[in-house]
Structures are given as C-alpha cells and as structure tokens.
Amino acid sequence: MHLPYVQNPPEFKDAQDQTIVERLKQRRGDAGLLELDLTLLHAPPVADGWNSFLGAIRTKTTLSTSIRETAICRIAVLNKAWFEWDHHAPLLKVCPGMNEEQIASIVNSPPHEFIGSAIDEQHRAVMAYTDAMTLDVCVPDIVFERLKNSFGEREVVEITATIAAYNCVSRFLVALDVGERNEQSGPRAVQATGVGK
User: Mind listing the pLDDT tens digit for each residue in 163-190?
Assistant: First the structure.
C-alpha cells in the first residue's frame, strides 16, 4: 500500500463528502467498503464519479455475467492486478456453464493466444479483444470483426467500456498497491482451487 486508507467507517466533516460515502456504502451493500473505496475516498468527488461509472458497468449493461467477468479477470491476469482477480474470479467461477478448464484458460493463456478447448467462440472473441485493448490499445481489424460477429452493436460498446473501465481499475490498484497484492506472484483464488499456476 502506497497510501494509507481513510478510516473505516469514513467520517467527513463536509456533508457533501459524507453523502458520497453513503452512496458508496449503498452500492457495496453487505460487503462494506473495500480497500479500493478507502483509497479513492482521499478524493471524494473522484470516488463518487468512479462509483457511478463502475456501478453502471457492473449492473446496467446487457452483458452476461460470464462475458463481463471473463474480460475483467483476463485484464487482472494481464496487468497482474491480483486484488481485482481476488474480487472477480469468484463471480466468474459461479457463472452457469463456467468450469475449471475455462478459468484455467483465462489464467494460463499467453497474450494473444488461447489454450484449452472449453471456451466457446463468444468468450474467445472477448478474450482476444481484451488482450488487444489491454496490451496494444489498437485493435486489429480481424479481432474487431470476430467480436462483431459474436455480439450486437450495444454489446460491443458495453464490452469496450467494460475493458476500458477495468484497465483503469487495475492500473489504479497496482500503482497504489491497493490491498497489498503487488507482491503476489499469481492469482491466489485459483491457486487455492488447483487451477492455474
């Protein structure tokens, strides 16, 4: 951790800042505020915008959970954002139709390559697009066409926004070592289940 977390529960004297805390708590629900929130709250207006944007990405798109979480988990692996992985891999693992081989492919496939045969074409297209956006920024036409062949225009925008948003999240997490996960050498959640390396 490069910055101390704000106290939990946060207690700001400024009423507007305290209202922002309440909005964060409302979105997090029973989980309570995460270390990410307690870092963002050093700048309450930034935390508020972040909360609104990421809340929309997580809950207001038409994407299936498995598509969204495949992209997020792949970003976590590519960027070594293990705090992100620890929070999203469990969501992916319980998706209908998702199995250990598919999760292992997300973890163990080298950049721009995919190992294992368990992943269907939609998920492969999302992984290829995620790799291109995350590692190269520019997306080759062939990768974009593959995505367009599997998804409608709204979904393409939602997938693109999800990948862009979670690249932002992972970079914030790693830069500030939120959750003290930078020393972690791999995805802890899958190591515990025997998946991955």
Answer: 999 999 999 999 999 999 888 877 865 5
**Model confidence, pTM:** 0.91
CATH of domain 65-193: 1.20.1290.10
One DSSP character per residue, 1-39 reads --SPPPPSS---SSHHHHHHHHHHHHHHGGG---HHHHH
Contact 60, 51 (CB under 8 A): no
Q: What sign for the dihedral angle of Cα 62, 64, 65, 67? A: negative
Residue boundaries of the structural domains of the chain: 15-59, 65-193
Query: Which one, of 98, 34, 76, 100, lies nearest residue 167 by Cα?
Result: 76
140 three-state secondary structure: coil
